[in-house]
Amino acid sequence: MAKLVLVNAGKNYEYGVHEPLNLLVLAAYAKSKGHEVIIADQIAGEDIFEKIKKFNPDFIGITGTTAVISDAYEIADWSRKNNYKVVMGGVHVTIMPEEALEHSDYVIKGEGEDALARILEGKAKPGIIIGKCIKNLDELPKIDREMINIEYYQKGKDRTPGTHLHFVPPNTKLNSILATRGCPYNCIFCHNSWRGLPVRINSAKHIIEEMKELEGKYGTEAVFFMDDDFLFSKQRMREFCKLYKENNLKIIWGCQTRVNSVDRELLKEIKEAGCRQIIFGLESGNQRILSMLKNNKTTVEQNKEAIRLVKEAGILACGSFMIGNPTETEAEIEDTKRFIIENKLDGVGVSITTPFPGTKLWDMCKERGMIPDKIDWKKFNLSQLTFALNDIPKERMEEINKEFMNIVLENNPGMSPKNLLKVAIKHPHKAIKRVIENPRAIFSLIKRIFKK
Ligand code: B12
Questions:
Q1: How many angstroms does the Cα of residue 69 sit away from the middle of ligand 1?
Q2: Which residue lies with its CA nearest to atom 13 of ligand 1?
Q3: Which atom of ligand 1 is closest in space to residue 116's alpha carbon?
């Protein structure tokens, strides 16, 4: 039996909206094999170094997406200096295993459950290990949310009102569930740890059991499904809606999906089964750009129709968009601005297009010689320009980004002046910095007050 600490790396509280489901599932798996496991959560503000020293583990497992990988490496370096064995996994190290191996003893590419168990049992040699893909998600051991500070995560929405979770009223206990691994589509900007792996889903029965446990044990009132496309299996959704009603569940929920996964009938059914918000990756109001990003799979017209249907069903229709795409012109970005304003979405998220390693977008940028030798991974947070992907000068792109930030400010229900004031009181330095960077935000706020 080995002792393991799993670390949720990251110093930005804004990343603590959803519980770390990846570490919870890895912990459950390792525990089911008889190992002693705890989670040290830097994102939730824990003193992870103190917690690690006190537990004195045999292994430290660290997860990291690209945006927080510098924090993850810092923890890995500290751990090795203190003679702990380090295992790293997650989406970033899956793509950059050699880079991660400079900071750790073991690096897992892909799914971590089985590989981690082999390491803990002393059956794997240090180095890069390819994770085995879990075939049946329902067979994974049940996660135990008591391993983390559940109250901290249940208040995730109140702590960060600027999030996409518009369906969650203030002071509502929120949790997240992940019920799919993999995605059947191939958007050029996306990479997740299941890239190239088959799509697998939890059964409707399994999801309902998890919701029942959340409602009964933790008083959960709202759930966000983290699946890339929660609605894509119509059969599962039908079964889900039936069981939701049979079990008399009260939890309201939101999810992400594709515009081609919704139709009037399904929307009616899921509304009756607690669905209150749908987020689509709408990406662009310009067809040329949308076709490039989504491999010709969706159209601007389809996007408009999907928004209309969702609103008609009485569900909040939200969308995320990308600006600063390869070869994109200012006129094409204007199309996105117009789309956002004309389609009256209930929530809008805008990101600066960022080429994450492992994506087709990254390869395109590499081919064009755009990727610098020295990369600052901290910039990979989708709100900062990593490097220019088109002919729009950097300064102008930053201006355009601010204009979009103001559009988001005017169109996001979560960004009410009251909510923003609350955050400003809690994080005054951040608020002052944001206003100095973008003084016009004040006008957008005033506009917002009068719009109400
Ligand atoms: C939930 C989620 C969030 C949540 C919580 C993040 C979190 N750390 O869990 C929030 C909203 C905070 C978030 C924020 C961001 N996210 Co996010 N998010 C996701 C999402 C939808 C699900 C992640 C998840 O729970 N997966 C479930 C678990 C089971 O999978 P997993 O994490 O890959 O873990 C498996 C393996 O990788 C491995 N593993 C992972 N860690 C470890 C550790 C050890 C020790 C071992 C052995 C194995 C191992 O084993 C696990 C089980 O098999 C994914 C999309 C997706 N479908 O994956 C995007 C995704 C991870 N996010 C992404 C991005 C870009 C971001 C942000 C930068 C966005 C932003 N503007 O802020 C930030 C980054 C901050 C951060 N700390 O993550 C990208 C990451 C791209 C990249 N190269 O890093 C993804 C892949 C979306 C995408 N398709 O582009 N995100």
A1: 11
A2: 15
A3: 47
Mutate which of 21, 22, 177, 188 for ligand 1 pocket (most atoms within 8 A of beta carbon): 22
Instruction: Determine whether domain 3-130 maps to CATH 3.30.200.20.
Output: no
Q: Whose CA is nearest to atom 55 of ligand 1?
A: 192
Instruction: Please spell the DSSP secondary structure of 221-287, one letter per residue.
Output: -EEEE--TTTTS-HHHHHHHHHHHHHTT---EEEEEE-GGG--HHHHHHHHHTTEEEEEEEEE-SSH
Residues 6 or more apart whose CB falls under 8 angstroms from that of 180 comprise: 199, 200, 201, 202, 227, 228, 229, 230, 232
| 155-351 CATH fold | TIM Barrel (3.20.20)
Q: What would the mean pLDDT of 262-289 be, rounded to a whole number?
A: 97
- Per-domain residue ranges for the chain? 3-130, 155-351
pTM of the model: 0.91
Average pLDDT of the chain to the nearest whole number: 91
Tell me whether domains 3-130 and 155-351 share a fold.
no
